[in-house]
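--- STAGE predict ---
source: upstream dedup step, 1 unique chain passed
mode: sequence only
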Amino acid sequence: MTTARSFRPSGLAMLVGVVVVGMLASAVLFRAGWTRVEAVEARNSAAREAGPDDPLARLDLWLRFGEPQLQNRLIQLRFSSAHPGLITHTVVRADGPDEIWGVDLSGSHPARIERDGLVLTAVLAEPRLLGHGVLTGMNAQRVPAYPPDAVPDPEARARELCDHFLGELRDGLERDIDGATLRFAFEPRDLPATGAGERG
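--- STAGE serialize ---
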């Protein structure tokens, strides 16, 4: 009497099957996500087309949706809970802990929006000393460190970072509304320093 041998798929076949299933699932998810992006873009495009022709009225409409995006983007630029600001640079001190400089972004609306015709100005706190210590975390290596005799102009550095991180939002505004622009300005604010910084 012969006994039937049970079928066992080879390890290679199982690996290929897992890879194929994974690729199919990824393709389905990618397509679903892309379809959603296309739908959002089509809806936004239709809203722009249905909007008023007058640039000033279009800017009124943009502010309803654009300002929350701007404020949210600024909040996302906070370095950490210990340093809720856009860190511009550090100053390395031989006689003490490093100085941590940046723009304070605490609060739910870090910028005050001013409007003059088609010109929007996002007014932020001026760059200042936010604390002392050593920055740690994923973004710490991206923050330039300077000796005391080679520190760049803090406001110029802050404006450069705002242009970089918020440039896409500004470019979209200028593309959608002829003559409109978004600028960044800084003002003194009576804000306390955050105290000691993170130490590695």
